[in-house]
Specification:
The chain folds into 2 domains: about 90 residues, DNA polymerase, domain 1; about 130 residues, hpI Integrase, Chain A (Orthogonal Bundle). The longest helix has 22 residues. By secondary structure, the protein is mainly α. The chain is built from 13 helices and 2 strands, in the order H-H-H-H-H-H-H-H-E-E-H-H-H-H-H. A hairpin with a 5-residue loop joins strand 1 and strand 2. It has a two-stranded antiparallel ribbon with strand order 1-2.
């Protein structure tokens, strides 16, 4: 007879080792599996594998009753389907496909990039607002990596001493352990080098270069806080988050004529569909420019 902890340990090992999911995804998927096990009380893989669509629907209904929205419900369903499919494999079933159940529709919003001027201003503002010079240089360097190289915040914070000094290109390990090569602009290299010259910690080959005030790895939350302060000073909307800098990197390259396949490689997207959304952003920006410039549109 299996205990709840046995199911969760096997599921976690699969997610981290076989699927190489991010720590955030693993935590969310484990939490969803834990809630399902509390509800159905399975005692072995075969019992869990028999979880059907009505049972999953009831679980989602319970979660809805707790107040979760469409996005969270869709994520929960995806996690539970994966868990059931894993259970069916563990139980030795020929058909490992999870129950067929359609999740809630999610209206995908367009990414909200910020202008090149605002991106530059943000990097300067965070540098000037920090309590210590090296912390300001640190926050500016992280944001420059996101805007100038299109890195995700986790990718920027995962850089180690082995990646230093930065050259003209950088090998980045992104989601799903997928590697890509991104060009590094001189201004980005200079920003990171300036931080390394000022920060008080030794640059160890196997340790992250971006450190917190006490020397531990820098958390994404600290970068987000710095960005929040900067956008308040500049009067930018709440959508001006660190990740918006990556959106800006993508839309500005697309506007400059970079083709979608190349942009997909630079961003590390698994599918071209994830990259194509930026064509809608660029079209929307062009329409705004047209409306603001055309004499018959002004004043409407």
């Amino acid at each position: 007879m299996m205990q709840k902890a046995d199911f969760l340990a096997a599921w976690q090992d699969y997610l981290t080792q076989a699927r190489r999911r991010s720590p955030h995804t693993v935590r969310a998927y484990i939490a969803a599996a834990s809630r399902l096990l509390d509800r159905i009380g399975a005692t072995d893989w075969a019992a869990l594998a028999r979880t059907d669509a009505p049972a999953l629907r009831a679980q989602l209904a319970a979660r809805r009753g707790e107040g979760i929205g469409n996005v969270s419900a869709a994520r929960e369903l995806s996690a539970l389907k994966g868990f059931i499919a894993f259970a069916r494999t563990q139980a030795g079933m020929d058909d490992a496909a999870p129950p067929r159940l359609r999740g809630p529709r999610i209206k995908k919003g367009l990414p909200r990039p910020i202008t090149p001027v605002d991106a530059t201003n943000v990097a300067e503002i965070v540098e000037g607002m920090a309590t210590e010079d090296w912390i300001g240089a640190r926050d500016s360097a992280v944001l420059l990596l996101m805007y100038g190289a299109g890195l995700r915040i986790a990718e920027a914070l995962s850089l180690t001493g082995a990646d230093m000094p930065l050259g003209e290109t950088l090998v980045v390990t992104g989601k799903g352990n997928k590697q890509r090569i991104v060009p590094i602009l001189p201004v980005v290299r200079e920003g990171v080098a300036a931080y390394l010259r000022q920060q008080p910690w030794p640059v160890e080959r196997d340790e992250p270069i971006f450190r917190g005030a006490k020397g531990g790895p820098l958390s994404p939350g600290m970068v987000q806080k710095a960005m929040a302060k900067a956008r308040t000073v500049l009067g930018l909307p709440a959508t001006a988050t660190p990740h918006a800098l990556r959106h800006s990197f993508a839309t500005h390259l697309l506007g400059a004529g970079v083709d979608l396949r190349s942009l997909q490689e630079l961003l590390g997207h698994a599918s071209l569909g994830s990259t194509q959304i930026y064509t809608r952003v660029d079209a929307a920006r062009m329409l705004d420019t047209y409306r603001n410039a055309h004499p018959r549109e002004r004043g409407r």
